[in-house]
Amino acid sequence: MRRQRRTKIVATIGPASSDAAVMEKLFIAGTDVFRINMSHTSHDAMRTYVDQIRAIESKHNRPIGILADLQGPKLRLGTFAEGGAVLKEGAQFVLDDDPKPGDAKRAYLPHYEVLAALEPGHRLLVNDGQVRLRVTDASKKRAVTTVEVGGRISDRKGVNLPDSIVTLSALTEKDRADLEAALEKGVDWLGLSFIQRPDDIAEARKFARGRAAIMSKIEKPQAIARLSEIIELSDALMVARGDLGVELPLERVPGLQKQITRGARQAGKPVVVATQMLESMINAPVPTRAEVSDVATAIFDGADAIMLSAESAAGNHPVEAVQTMDRIAQEVERDQTYHPVIDAQRPFPEATGADAISAAARQIAETLHLPAILCLTSSGATALRVARERPQPPIVALSPNISTARRLAVLWGTHCVVMEDAPDLGEEVERACNMAFREGFAKAGQRVIFVAGVPLGTPGATNMVRIAFVGGKDEPAD
To answer: Is residue 19 part of a domain?
Structure first.
């Protein structure tokens, strides 16, 4: 099943899409990666979802990626004597370590790490920023704040800290249990929340031990401050615009989306743009014009994938939402301005053999109008470097490892095929050309370009480019 677009689609599973028949419809409509939100999913439900997705994968003979999105720490207030309180602008409000119910003057903050991190001048945003406090005095057990934006707060409302670096691990006990359960079931990606520093990613890697790739969710100002380090340590990134829009001024989010997207492409790491892309389709069968433009902007930015959250998890029209994204992506990628915009953002090749080969392959393919670039890739590194070039011909990633093919399902422009290694290079080229013919990427007699690492099966050793004729003959790309 060949997609007629380069940009991938991630769809979240939830009550509206947990049935196996609906999942298959979502896949046929265009879903490349399924996201399981561990904030709302039990281990048993997660296992059922994975089994259902793998059954769809087997039926359609196409690798499907699975992303287990970890919840991360959730900072919340304690309870209130009357269930809540109204805070007036300019009033003083105290947060402390006393667990007794709160009122309009004080509340329990059951996170000693937060109280320890607060300093005068720091902001606290309660209930997604509807109430805003600023610290005037702080100690390890108590913080005095002034109410800058008043309103009602109630039991266990969430707290965001845009100015404070909290010494909390990005992995809670729940996350560690979720992580182990997801890894045992064989998910392909782990979505890591609450990232503040590179050490958070290193901790997750220690637990994952290579069993899944790490997708770092950029949702906090602290992560933006150390973005280059976080990109370097991550396998992929997600622009989590929901929390970014709470902790930072909303008008900064579009620029940050472009900054993160381009930074990820520079590093050759996939990037997913998420949150409220087709929000109105939770209830309506069609999106707003602004939402269509928002999705199109992410595609023009060169994002590897665009994501649906509540639209596919809990909305009334999950399949239609995926179909809408698919149509938008196809239309944008056909637009005459698309490739010039994408090409203008192309980063210079890094001074490595793999980048030189990948850049050459893209230029040869476009100069000769070849129908496809075939990548033999064991670890996925070859396909990642070629996709970084954003070539006009589609990329066919041929891997002997099903885990690699599933992870590459999120990668821009890449059609993944599982193919066993051949005993020698000549037979490998012939098999790859036959595969390109069967999958509809090339016709008999056409030429394709072939990128690989020799000796075959050596991870990260991209060092060969070759032009081959579909049908058996080949010529060197000297």
So the answer is: yes
pLDDT (tens digit, 9 = 90+) per residue, 22-52?
999 999 999 999 999 999 999 999 999 999 9
Q: Considering 217, 385, 388, 406, which one is annotated as catalytic?
A: 217
The pTM score is 0.93
Residues 310 and 372 in one domain: no
Distance between CA 48 and CA 174 in Å, rounded?
Answer: 19
Write down which residue in 98, 125, 160 finishes a domain: 160
Residue 126: domain span: 84-160
Whether 262 is catalytic is no
Question: Is residue 217 annotated as a catalytic residue, yes or no?
Answer: yes
Distance CA 357, CA 380 (A): 15
Q: Is residue 347 domain-resident?
A: no
Q: Is 428 found in the same domain as 387?
A: yes
Tens digit of each residue's pLDDT (9 = 90 or more) over 384-400: 999 999 999 999 999 99
Element (H, E) at 373: strand 373-376
Instruction: Decide: residue 350, CB within 10 A, 0-12 exposed, 13-18 middle, 19+ buried.
Output: middle
Per-residue model confidence as pLDDT tens digits over 191-208: 999 999 999 999 999 999
